[in-house]
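Worked example 3 (structure in, sequence out).
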């Protein structure tokens, strides 16, 4: 059963991340009258939705049952800052992912309780980001300025991502989660190239895609043990 949950959760994560990347990109490039929605407020709403969903799941688990389980041109300076931010995120994200896996697998708290805790702090820091970066726009045009049907799809997909990632780390591991996310980026890029026709991949992209696919195969490959040779 756990093996089935492992592959199902990985498949859902690939689908969710691919859908989120494509929908988010389209929602930010869609030309409509009025102000655009603020990414900072969308993050907060997604965290609140995740908390509410986890509360419902915790309540469901408590029922008696047989089993109790904006686009700007980048300058050279901003490129350097961006590179440093990405490198910092790589180290911090890697540590956070491994530690989160340790917490989920070595404690008795359910996945949904952990998600409620993470969503609570995520909402606090998200509101701080709204106040610091978009406080003036929110006070002028409202918290939900620019929201439309597509915006709510992005918010729901973002909230779903938090639930799926927790399930992936619980039933698979953090490394497979990274592979699944990388595969979803490759898939969304191919869709952008062949269907939307708004992205032209380079040779570096194809090299990276080959490396990711090869690494995924090698990590998940389970060679069959060689049979014992019969003695004469």
């Amino acid at each position: 059963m756990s093996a089935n949950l492992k592959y199902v959760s990985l498949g859902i994560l690939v689908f969710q991340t691919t859908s989120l990347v494509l929908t988010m990109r389209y929602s930010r490039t869609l030309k409509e009258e009025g102000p655009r929605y603020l990414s900072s407020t969308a993050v907060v709403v997604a965290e609140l939705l995740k908390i509410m969903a986890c509360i419902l799941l915790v309540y469901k688990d408590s029922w008696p049952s047989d089993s109790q389980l904006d686009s700007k041109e980048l300058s050279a300076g901003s490129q350097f800052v961006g590179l440093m931010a990405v490198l910092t995120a790589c180290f911090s994200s890697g540590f956070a992912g491994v530690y989160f896996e340790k917490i989920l697998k070595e404690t008795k708290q359910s996945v949904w309780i952990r998600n409620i805790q993470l969503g609570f702090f995520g909402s606090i820091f998200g509101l701080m980001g709204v106040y610091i970066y978009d406080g003036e726009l929110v006070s002028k045009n409202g918290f939900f300025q620019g929201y439309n049907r597509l915006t709510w799809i992005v918010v729901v997909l973002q909230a779903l991502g938090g639930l799926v990632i927790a399930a992936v780390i619980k039933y698979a591991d953090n490394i497979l989660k990274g592979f699944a996310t990388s595969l979803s980026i490759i898939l969304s890029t191919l869709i952008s190239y062949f269907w939307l026709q708004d992205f032209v991949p380079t040779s570096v992209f194809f090299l990276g895609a080959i490396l990711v696919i090869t690494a995924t195969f090698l990590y998940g490959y389970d060679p069959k043990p060689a049979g014992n040779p019969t003695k004469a």
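Notes: Confidence is low (pLDDT under 50) at residues 66-77. Residues 176 and 220 are 8 Å apart (CA to CA).
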